[in-house]
Amino acid sequence: MSTATKNADKLKKAVKEKYTEISQQSAEHNGRSCCGAGGRSDEVYNIMTDDYGSVEGYRAEADLALGCGLPTQFAKVKAGDTVIDLGSGAGNDCFIARHEAGPGGKVLGIDFTESMIAKARKNAAKLGYNNVEFRLGDIEEMPVTDNIADVIVSNCVLNLVPDKKEVFREIYRTLKSGGHFSISDIVLAGELPKALKEDAEMYAGCVAGAIQKNTYLGFIQELGFEEITLQKEKPITIPEDILGRYLDEAEIKAFNEGGTGIYSITVFARKPGGDKNGRDNKVTVLESSDSVCAPGSGCC
């Protein structure tokens, strides 16, 4: 087994153990921390999460405040669609997708943490949703057949996966021709301090596992997706009382003034085929700060 494989396995084990713990924490606790990890802040509430309150289909009991966007709101789910949610947690985005897909649709949530799957299944049973399924599995090797999904969504999960490009390959494999995804995730502009980058809890906290924004978007382009669109971007500020667990005062000052940006992005793209074939794969920006640009354009 190669060193890279061993390191990836070690990271996955750490994430699984941490998210087993996080599954038992309250949404309020998770919202005051970095995705439930790394200790909570007394300065800021909802460090990463967006407000689901006005989103139709939302179920508070299934929201553990682990997201960094509202991908399902942007996902253009239609009645009758088959939707897959990657890293489905307690089921929140699956239940919103079910509202959009209707009784004739099907929603499948995939998560590799047994306790999250158990919680999501319990929530679905309480709600009587017989067209929502939760399946234990690794999103780098999804337990689904080829060309099955109309839409794929994910909320603040790919940053936890060692091989992000492999996840996008799996998304391409499992989408139908002309199908699309909408994914919210954490990306970087600039380098994190070494202490943050190497800390296992901050990896589980959706920060240390994030990669450069242009690299992330580049993976999507390289695999041949079309209509790549940045639907939303927002900066993420890590409160100083959390940073202080990893950095001294001088390091915090250097980090805050050093130009490194941590961002939540929601990105849309379509698999070629169907009646949508032949569109370009340049990045389009819909709602964002001025800092967003296409990979290779020279502005990042």
Q: What would you say this structure looks like, in words?
A:
The chain is of the alpha/beta class and 300 residues long. The chain has a single domain (3-285), classed as Rossmann fold, CATH 3.40.50.150. It is built from eleven helices and nine strands. The chain has helices at 3-22, 27-31, 71-74, 92-101, 114-127, 164-174, 194-197, 200-204, 213-222, 240-243, 249-257, and strands at residues 82-86, 106-111, 132-136, 149-155, 175-189, 211-212, 226-235, 261-270, 284-285. Strands 1, 2, 3, 4, 5, 6, 7, 8 and 9 form a nine-stranded mixed beta sheet that branches. Strand 2, helix 5 (114-127) and strand 3 form a beta-alpha-beta unit. It is globular, with a radius of gyration of 18 Å. Mean pLDDT is 86; it is low at 288-300.
